[in-house]
Amino acid sequence: MQDIRLREGRPLMSNVSRLTFLLPLLLGFSFNGLSAFTAFFCERLGNIYGRALTFVLRNILGIPLWALGYALAARTSMPPFLGPSIARDVAAWILIACGSAIILLALGALRGKAAAPSPGDALVDYGLYAHVRHPIHSAMILEFVGLALLMPTPPVLLASIAGLGWLVVQSKLEEMDLCRRIPAYRDYMQRVPRFVPRVSFGPRPSVGRR
Per the structure, how many domains does the chain have? Predict the structure, then answer.
């Protein structure tokens, strides 16, 4: 009887172990979400400690944890939904490469503001930021979709869907904070879309560098 119970318990334990990637993934998303409250932290703790807390939540806890969760999802052994496909793999790598290039360009425009935002930051509305308000998040959407295509297993698909949902929430939290820190951001939100650039065949309005 005891052997039967042990055998019955093994599939349950195996299924639970396959979901362990969710713990660091969701914790990382949560810490990243908390890092969006820079204005609140600086008001309560002062600029130095408020910015330091934002930096720790985002760069020391948030990003490493959710990246670890995604890596664990990729390492979880489960049969894929889709069979091998060279065309799909090529499309996946193109999406990942494009996402990586966009992130590098966006970080170059922000410089240190992405890692340690400040109440004294000026509005960045040039380069990629003249076309979308969150080019880094747009790039991560491409990467999440690309990774799901490259490794179409249940854990990676679940992690990608969770990542897409987190990006929507994260962008809204960051915009609430940006409106408090940068008054001009409200007008910027009216002019520039969040993730997907507008397609226009007419002359582009000039956007000043600030």
Answer: 1
Q: Report pTM.
A: 0.86
Residue 201 lies inside a defined structural domain of this protein: no
pLDDT tens-place string over residues 168-194: 999 999 999 999 999 999 999 999 999
Burial (CB count <10 Å: 0-12, 13-18, 19+), residue 123: middle
Q: What is the pLDDT of residues 88-146, one digit of tens each?
A: 999 999 999 999 999 999 999 988 788 889 888 999 999 999 999 999 999 999 999 99
Best CA proximity match to 98, nearest among 136, 129, 67: 136
Spatial distance between the Cα atoms of 8 and 111, rounded to a whole number of angstroms: 55
Residue 120: give the domain boundaries. 2-191
Distance in angstroms (rounded) separating the CA atoms of residues 169 and 205: 30
Rounded distance between C-alpha atoms, residue 56 and residue 19, angstroms: 26
Q: What is the dihedral of CA 43, 46, 47, 52, to 10 degrees?
A: -110
